[in-house]
Design brief:
There is one protein chain. This protein has 198 residues and is α+β, with helices and mostly antiparallel strands. It has one domain: Maf protein, CATH 3.90.950.10. The protein has five helices and eight strands. Strands 1, 2, 3, 4, 5, 6, 7 and 8 form an eight-stranded mixed sheet that branches. A hairpin with a 6-residue loop joins strand 3 and strand 4. Helix 1 packs parallel to helix 5. Bound molecules: inosinic acid.
């Protein structure tokens, strides 16, 4: 199998997370920032898998390189699962999204602040026209205020009782071991090491 791969994201935080986990599997990693030609991807589906597949197919077919994409989101129980698949459209940037979430949650007591991150990862092979789907999740709580400046997105307000820390206070390597995306990518890694690919 080719040792090149595209991680179909402009989000550099996501790119680093995925590359760190798959370093042994590929020699060259590209993000969408490495290509002059911009591929327009409109993530307009209410289904994570559909958005991820759309991204992987469009990018993989355009550049002819195996492509990994993911679609992820934060599902908050007190908000009936919102922002969910619409997480990246919940505000214009990470700060605005966090402020909006803390504001919506300001009257919700601690025990009802449960939430989960979910990630659907696609591995798409344009030469064969086939794709594989991997899933991961991470359960936690929405904190009352921001903690830490590591990671990206909602990490500073996603509290993990086992660590007594928010994800924003946890190093990348540790986050990758436990996170939704980390679990999905590790499942992809195991799959890449099966006889199927040898
Ligand atoms: P997308 O998968 O690029 O559509 O982005 C999903 C959105 O969910 C991101 O913009 C973040 O707001 C949020 N999100 C997904 N994964 C994480 C994570 O690991 N940490 C913090 N926020 C995340």
């Amino acid at each position: 199998m080719s040792r090149k791969v595209i991680i179909a994201t402009e989000n550099i935080g996501k790119f680093y997370e995925i590359r760190e986990l798959l370093e042994s599997e590929f020699d060259t990693f590209y993000s969408l920032r490495d290509f002059k030609e911009k591929v327009e991807i409109i993530e307009d589906s209410p289904f994570y898998i559909e958005n991820a597949l759309k991204k992987a197919r469009k990018v993989g077919n355009r550049f002819g390189i195996n492509t990994i994409s993911d679609d992820s989101g934060l599902e908050v129980d007190a908000l009936n699962g919102r922002p969910g698949v619409f997480s990246s459209r919940y505000g214009k940037d990470d700060n605005e999204r966090i402020e909006k979430l803390l504001n919506e949650m300001k009257d919700i007591p601690w025990e009802k602040r449960t939430a989960r991150f979910v990630a659907y990862v696609i591995f798409y092979m344009p030469q064969k026209g086939t794709f594989y789907v991997f899933y991961g999740d991470l359960k936690g709580y929405i904190s009352f205020e921001k903690r830490g400046d590591k990671g990206f997105g909602f990490d500073p307000v996603f509290y993990l009782p086992e660590y007594n820390k928010c994800l924003g206070e946890i190093d990348l390597e540790e986050k990758n071991r436990i996170s939704h995306r980390g679990k999905a990518i590790l499942a992809l890694k195991s799959f890449l090491n099966t006889d199927f690919f040898r």
